[in-house]
Specification:
This protein is α/β, with parallel strands linked by helices. Helix content is 28%, strand content 17%. The strands form 2 sheets. A 4-stranded parallel β-sheet has the order 3-2-1-4, with helices on both faces. The longest helix has 17 residues. The protein is globular and about 45 Å long. The two termini are 17 Å apart.
Length: 187
């Protein structure tokens, strides 16, 4: 599930559209980059795109060739949790045994190969333990207050995967400075 329904986050390069619809590097928007990255791991026929109707003017041209049944359109953005719940409800009706992955489209990844390797590990773990939620994070270079932080718990599957001990929702600068950045990942 590619999530492309986030609110306007900031002006980027003089363009006031939501950043997933901006081309930050090269000519591809973050949404296009996410779709390409996901298509290397998951067949297009199994991929859905969740979007917001109010953003149609930004994505209509990009998604003109996408089959209508692959598009889930919300009338309004109600946040990530609501988007995930809405998507899961739809997927459960179509395939209740599906392994589901969510890919926010407002992030840039410089190393698609490393991302794919981590996704392979996540899919393998999800296949072995279908009751577990797998959450991927990125090790930070420095304290960062704009992202949520994942505090790992006990190792699972020989150390490649860990339980989540705690999720820190966008800590303040002071809080992010005090968090042990060597042990945490960014959401």
């Amino acid at each position: 599930m590619v999530l492309g329904c986030f609110l306007l986050t900031r002006k980027i390069s003089g363009d006031d559209r939501p950043k997933q619809f901006c081309a930050l590097t090269g000519g591809e928007t973050l949404l296009d980059q996410t779709r390409r990255r996901v298509s290397g791991m998951i067949p297009d026929r199994q991929t859905r795109l969740l979007l917001t109707e109010t953003h149609e003017r930004f994505y209509a041209d990009q998604l003109a060739g996408v089959a209508e049944e692959r598009l889930l359109i919300q009338p309004y953005n109600h946040g990530t949790a609501a988007a995930i719940a809405y998507s899961l409800t739809h997927i459960d009706r179509v395939n209740p045994d599906a392994v589901v992955a969510f890919f926010p489209s407002d992030h840039h990844f410089a190393n698609n190969g490393a991302f794919a390797a981590h996704m392979d590990l996540a899919f393998t773990q999800a296949g072995m333990d279908q009751e577990r939620v797998i959450l991927l994070g990125i090790l930070p270079d420095a304290p960062e207050e704009s992202y949520g932080w994942i505090e790992p718990g006990e190792s699972v599957a020989g150390g490649a995967v860990s339980e989540v001990r705690r999720f820190w929702e966008k800590p303040s600068r002071r809080g992010s400075d005090s968090i042990d950045a060597r042990r945490l990942s960014l959401e």
